Amino acid sequence: MNEKPALATIAKAIDHSLLHPTLTDSGIRDGCRIAREYTVATVCVKPYSIPMVRDQLAGSSVGICSVITFPHGNATTAMKVAEADEALSLGATEIDMVANIGKVLGGDWEDVSCEIGEIQALVTGRHGLLKVIFENDYLEDKHIIKLCEICTDLDVAFVKTSTGYGFVKQRDGNYSYAGATDRHLALMRKHCGAHVAIKAAGGIRTLDDALRVMRLGATRIGATATQAICEEAKSRGM
Q1: Of 12, 46, 199, 209, which one is the catalytic site residue?
Q2: Is residue 1 domain-resident?
Q3: Could you list the residue range(s) of the whole structural domain that residue 73 is in?
Q4: Is 208 a catalytic site residue?
């Protein structure tokens, strides 16, 4: 991507994230107002807030993306399927699921593939889009590559770098995360089929961050800093 994209293009790449556990209903309504103002792709929300968000976004082109078993992905497959089914029934059109990270790290690829496949079948059968969150901070390159291959074989719509909440304990005892790194985005783009899109999430807080991940092949961005990103684009005449 050599030319600078227009503001409308940047905004339509954003899933405006409303996922923090302390977010109140008032905060969610404020987030929907921002999403409508900039006409983003979707708001990304917790399942319980879908009915309220649906009302807030009525008449707009902003979609509703629901996370399921967020942020750790440790529910049973049946629970994940049920949560996705209810989210779609409530009005979500996109589902962001977290892969079973323990199964991924253990190399239980048949289980991982079967679970993603079941949810993919449900979501596409309901005319929705599925995004599979890898949580790259926990993984080695070999795990990321294998997940890319599985998602490609299953025709998943998007693979996603991170939840934004995958904190890893460091040597000093503190927890932090890297989120959507250049190296991981390049690795995912290389090992996913052309029909699988990339969603970058985690640490994208500025316009330059957004432009960077878009240059690396991300066509969807998970961000809480939507307003700051879009206002910076305006100030640059984009």
Answers
A1: 199
A2: no
A3: 7-235
A4: no
Active site residue 190: no
Which of 96, 137, 146, 209 does the annotation list as catalytic? Answer: 96
Cα dihedral 137→35→225→212 (10° resolution): 70
96: annotated active-site residue:
yes
Question: In a structure prediction context, what are the per-residue pLDDT tens digits for the chain, which is 238 residues long?
Answer: 456 789 999 999 999 999 999 999 999 999 999 999 999 999 999 999 999 999 999 999 999 999 999 999 999 999 999 999 999 999 999 999 999 999 999 999 999 999 999 999 999 999 999 999 999 999 999 999 999 999 999 999 999 999 988 888 888 888 788 889 999 999 999 999 999 999 999 999 999 999 999 999 999 999 999 999 999 999 999 9
User: Does pTM top 0.85 for this prediction?
Assistant: yes
Cα distance between residue 42 and residue 11, in whole Å? 10
